[in-house]
Amino acid sequence: MKRQNSPRTIRNATGAAGLAVLLAISGYVAPAAAATTTAWAGWDPLTGETGNYTTSLTFGSAPGLTAGVTSTSRSGQVGVISGASTWLSEGTPVGAKYGSSRNEPYLNMRQFNDYRLIPSVTTYKFVSPTP
């Protein structure tokens, strides 16, 4: 004896198939899932001069991220800072999620011009797509 599908089963299957076709046509892509890390970035020394600084950073592993960094910052108190005297504690929202940044290096840049309040532009160019 042959089993027949009920009208409800056929409607559900047709609706699911229609939704799949609609999502495919619309170009829907499921949200990306990325590995999380509690590591802070590692920095190469900052080189250059006012308006033309460069460095690079590495972040995490499996997969690790690498980026070249350029900045139009003006000089004076710029560079990769040790994190020994200024850091995010575990009591801050970022520190609660990733751990304290004490003794973790970070990049310190300035605006392009203090008198006209012109901001500098710092650009990160990742070697491979970021997750």
Q: What is the secondary structure topology, with strand pairs?
A:
Blueprint: H1 7-26, E1 42-43, E2 47-49, E3 52-59, E4 65-71, E5 79-81, H2 93-98, E6 106-108, E7 122-126
Antiparallel strand pairs: 1-3, 2-3, 3-4, 4-7, 5-6
Outline the structure in words.
- This protein is an alpha+beta fold and 131 residues long.
- It is built from 2 helices and 7 strands; from the N terminus they run H-E-E-E-E-E-H-E-E.
- Helices cover 20% and strands 24% of the residues.
- The strands form 2 sheets. Strands 1, 2, 3, 4 and 7 form a 5-stranded antiparallel beta sheet that branches. A two-stranded antiparallel ribbon has the order 5-6.
- The termini are far apart.
Summarize the structure.
The chain is an alpha+beta fold and 131 residues long. The chain has helices at residues 7-26, 93-98; strands at 42-43, 47-49, 52-59, 65-71, 79-81, 106-108, 122-126.
